[in-house]
Amino acid sequence: MLVKQISVFVENSKGKLSRVTEILAQNGINLRALSIADTTDFGILRLIVQNPEKAYDVLKQNGVTVKTTDVIVVKINDRPAALHNVLARLSEADIAVEYMYAFVGKERDAAYVIIKSDNSEKAVKELSKGGITVVPAKDIYEM
Amino acid sequence: MSKIWNPEAECMSRDKMHALQSERLIKKVKEVYDNVPHYRAKMDEKGVKPEDIRSVDDLHLLPFTSKQDLRDTYPNGLFARPNKDIVEIHATSGTTGKQVVAGYTKNDLELWGEVMARVLASAGGDENSVVQSSYGYGLFTGGLGAHYGAQTLGAMAIPTSSGNTERQIRMMKDLGTTILCCTPSYAAYIGETIREMGLDINEFKLEAGVFGAEPWTVEMQHEIEKMLNIRTVDVYGLTEIIGPGVAFSCEKECGIHINEDHFIPEIIDPDTGEVLPDGTLGELVFTCITKEGMPVIRYRTRDITSLTHEPCECGRTLVRMGKIQGRSDDMLIIRGVNVFPSQVESALLDISDVAPYYMLIVDRVGTRDTLEVQVEMAPDFFSDEIKHLEKLEKEIYEKLKSALGLAVKVKLVEPKSITRSEGKAVRVIDKRKK
After folding, report:
1. What number of helices (H) and strands (E) belong to chain B?
2. Cα A43 from Cα A35, distance rounded (Å)
3. Given an 8 Å threshold on Cβ–Cβ distance, is A44 in contact with B413?
4. Between vectors from CA B253 to CA B252 and to CA B256, what angle results, nearest 5°?
5. Per the CB < 8 Å rule, is B414 touching A16?
6. The pLDDT of residue B364 is above 80
7. Helices in B128-283 by DSSP H: which ranges?
8. ipTM of this model?
9. Which of B193, B253, B366, B385 has the fewest Cβ atoms within 10 angstroms?
10. Quick check: helix, strand or coil at residue A73?
11. Do A39 and B386 touch (CB under 8 A)?
């Protein structure tokens, strides 16, 4: 169920981000979603891609500091309280969210939320129990 | 008004100086040969006997003393007097075991007071002066060196030491300090703080500053003079020789007069050890000819400068050296603190098993020295959570702060962003104006 997210260390200065995207572009890696967490000096680029193994390898070969992180992706409907249901469920189960971000897929009435929690296995279990759709990794990669 | 404290010594004819130096050198060489096994061994190895030294012209026959010799004989292997004669100890910061210990006899402290009194007089000091010593007190030679000079002068000494800047400034104003002694960057900081406190510098009695212990440019000197509305004297010294007071500038701003009746300077080629003529840049070497506790012989300072024996318009005949151009090894002086890149490396090794690539960027923002330590993000350091990386930065910062005794900026950078060198690694970029 867990999706492999690619996390990249990027200095917060001109041209650094495009060097990463250039490597991905040259290797034909398609991006599903991304987010950047930044501080004054550096940032962490988080990517969901079609082929995480390959992305990891090509970035590493090019000297980029990269690692893969397990995250979960849930699919929610486009209506009020949809996200709240997810977070309330996690909160009740005493699971902390480290960070999250969202993207919209090809369907018009659904959104995908990527969640990094302190206990991904448990989070999957709890969310599934609550009737929330946890999207299998394969489906995300092949989207 | 600038004064000359000891005209007899400071304005002596060259012939007389030659005779005085020769007499003192001959005596000192015999003394260290007899009392310091390390010097005896080195002289024997070089085949030099004390009787080979017949005048100061024979100085070049003697072996050099390096910082390594001081480390090898740590703590007191180069002392020429028994402990009962030593009345005070000073030491360099040496946070990496590079510490150098110096022992002073009663006469050495008197000598120190004498040479520092010359410096303070050059700044216009006399018995009416109020001398505030804002160098650190303790093992560091700055605080007490300025203090002894003030006492020899008969001035009023205010031993504020460094730090607590607002209190310094209040005392400076309330007690009517006329001469401030500290590092140039601290002087600039004091100037900025006076402004921030909304005080008018014209309400102070400050007339002069005696600044040293770190390299500073003429531009910075003029800036501080303007900011504090004072004239400044550049004081030079090092713990191995005596501390501050080895040399000082006069009002003519044409170099730094060396108290050569006590410390004989030479300029050598750092690679061959050959003595170089006046006007040629090379490594500064000192021989102590009057000190008793730890008289170093041909001590290689690693400081790069040149000498001139031309008489100075100020009336002094003492040989002058130019401003220090740099160090021949990799030591940095930042805000008066000695920093070795190797200290950074060992601090980083405390955090990770493999030392990451790092680079020290030294700069000057306004008049204050800054040190940024760039550390390449190694795979085993990397986390995809900001809070972990910030914690890592903080950890590196704390480690470096305690290892160097200096607050630094830590910046995590991408791998390979630090230029690799083929030969000796370049660990430092010093952007301060030369």
Report:
1. 11, 21
2. 10
3. no
4. 110
5. yes
6. yes
7. 141-153, 165-174, 184-196, 218-228
8. 0.77
9. B366
10. strand
11. yes
Phi first, then psi: give them for residue B202, nearest 5 degrees. -70, -10
Tell me which DSSP letter residue B175 carries.
T
B416 Ramachandran zone, left/alpha/beta (phi>0; psi -120 to 50): left
CATH fold label, B7-328 = Rossmann fold (3.40.50)
CB B230, CB B206: distance < 8 Å: yes
A34, A42, A45, A57: which to substitute to probe chain B, counting the most B Cβ within 10 Å?
Answer: A42
Do A58 and A75 share a domain, yes or no?
no
Give the number of domains in chain A: 2
Amino acid at A27: N
Q: Strand pairing of B130-133 and B208-212?
A: unpaired
Domain boundary residue, one of A24, A51, A69:
A69
Show which of A42, A69, A96 is a domain's final residue.
A69
**What is the reported pLDDT for A89?**
93
**Nearest-by-Cβ selection for A44 from B386, B413, B416:** B386
> Which of B381, B384, B389, B394 is best to mutate for the A interface (most A CBs within 10 A)?
B384
Question: Cβ separation of B414 and A37 shorter than 8 Å?
Answer: no
Tell me the C-alpha distance between B7 and B122, whole Å: 11
Chain B partners of A9 at a C-beta cutoff of 8 Å?
377, 382, 389, 412, 414
CA distance B333 to B215: 7
Residues in chain A with pLDDT values less than 70:
none
Q: What would the mean pLDDT of B13-35 be, rounded to a whole number? A: 97
What is the spatial order of strands in the sheet that B243-249 belongs to? B156-158, B130-133, B179-182, B208-212, B231-238, B243-249, B256-258, B320-321, B307-308
| C-alpha dihedral sign at B396, B402, B403, B409 | positive
Cα–Cα distances in angstroms (integers) from residue A41 to residues A131, B34, B239, B249, B393, in the given order: 41, 60, 39, 42, 11
**For A46, which residue in chain B has the nearest alpha carbon?**
B384
Q: What would the pLDDT profile of A52-90 be if each residue is shown by its tens digit?
A: 999 999 999 888 999 999 999 999 998 889 999 999 999
By CB atoms closer than 10 A (0-12, 13-18, 19+), residue B84 is exposed
CB contact under 8 A, A39 and B416: no
As given in the structure block, the two tokens for residue B291 are: 């000190």
CATH 3.30.428.10 matches B333-430: no
